[in-house]
Amino acid sequence: MTESHQVQSRVRSVMEDPSAQAIARVYAEAFLNAAGGKEGGETLDEMASFVNDVLQKFPQFETLLTTNVVNRDKKVSMIGRVLGTQGSELFRNFLCTLARHERLDLLPLILNESQIQYETLCGKQRVSVTSSFPLSAEAQSRIQSELGKSLPFEPVLETSVDPSLLGGLKIQVGDTVYDTTIKSRMKQLRKSLRKRSHHEIQCGRDRFSYPEGN
């Protein structure tokens, strides 16, 4: 068996674990508390840089950090060599803690949870906006501005594209969905036409059942 087959990453299985999100949320809260809450923006940027500029660009290094073949002490040593004196002591210690608890594979999830919690601390909240085509920066700015006028927090847009919507927007704030898409309008129209057709058929049956003069 080759070395590439022997080195197996736990990332896939962990990401599919329904409890992974909850575990990541706990680590994210602890990380932000240690970083000073709203004052932890720079440390959060440091985590984002490590995930985006190191792990994503060097997948072999990510595999070494997340595999169960490399022991914990070696992972801690690798983190020290890679970060050196560049990273903050807080972030280095946090990564080492994850390594000792075999949780480095949760780092992308922890980053996402940390960003969400940090945004909440700063009076922001993510809003999902789905359109039938990619929105320009100008359109996103306009939507964000309009939403900000009616929401009790500063919206942070998460955009996605679904061509089947045909046109319009589907906006989700928490558990509430505002659907102004053409697809939704057509669905409502079909429902209205079916209801009207059913009503007309029923009226016709009633006329035949009770003819005039009887």
UniProtKB/TrEMBL annotation:
Compartments in which it is found: Membrane
Keyword vocabulary terms for this entry: ATP synthesis, Hydrogen ion transport, Hydrolase, Ion transport, Membrane, Transport
Molecular function as annotated in GO: hydrolase activity; proton-transporting ATP synthase activity, rotational mechanism
EC code(s) of this entry: 3.6.3.14
Signal peptide positions (record): none
SUPFAM superfamilies: N-terminal domain of the delta subunit of the F1F0-ATP synthase
InterPro entries linked: ATP_synth_OSCP/delta_N_sf (IPR026015), ATPase_OSCP/dsu (IPR000711)
Gene3D superfamilies recorded: N-terminal domain of the delta subunit of the F1F0-ATP synthase
Top EC category: hydrolase
Gene Ontology CC, one term: membrane
Name of the protein in its database record: ATP synthase delta chain
Taxonomic source organism: hydrothermal vent metagenome
